[in-house]
């Protein structure tokens, strides 16, 4: 089985597990997702399919160092998934796959949230970098990462608006002292 397929299946199983177990069901929470979860799944599906198509059909964009690149791809993918799950575990009951604010929602600024506001998204984006690198094609890397990144930026905007409304000054102060995805950069 190709490495990219193995990584894709690991990611898919991980996300399906989250979707089944961590979708907000509570009537006490206020859903503010604005269909970003649905859009993310659509963008991810189309981007992955397009990236695989490009990798298979545009060999001129192949990346060198196949074996080394495969090792780097797996390492980045694993680091991304570990970071994502660390963030999810740190959020605990406040984590849902759809943007939902609980009535007793509180700011979580420990663990990876000390460094960035969206470590779960940093992790998932790293996992996609690893997956895209496993295809060993620079064009596939672009085709996969650009739309997915844009979809996550939209999701972060929706999430930050909801958290700002719910948590007010505390969240504004947190936003002022942390970057979104990469400490000290963005």
Structure, described:
The chain is elongated and about 50 Å long. By secondary structure, the protein is mainly α. Helices cover 66% and strands 2% of the residues. It has helices spanning 3-21, 36-57, 66-91, 119-134, 138-167, 169-177; strands at 30-31, 100-101. The chain has a two-stranded antiparallel ribbon. It has one domain: Four Helix Bundle (Hemerythrin (Met), subunit A) (Up-down Bundle), CATH 1.20.120. The chain is built from six helices and two strands; from the N terminus they run αβααβααα.
Summarize the structure.
The protein has about 190 residues and is an all-alpha fold.
Oligomer: single chain
CATH topology, what is it called?
Four Helix Bundle (Hemerythrin (Met), subunit A)
* Structural class computed from helices and strand pairing: mainly alpha
CATH architecture: Up-down Bundle
By CATH reckoning, the class would read Mainly Alpha
Uncertain residue ranges: none
Mean pLDDT: 92
Order of helices and strands: HEHHEHHH
Radius of gyration: 17 Å
Domains (count): 1
What overall geometry do the principal axes of the alpha carbons give? elongated
Distance between the termini: 36 Å
Strand content: under 5%
Our count of helices gives: 6
- Biggest β-sheet strands, sense, barrel: 2 strands, antiparallel
Total beta strand runs: 2
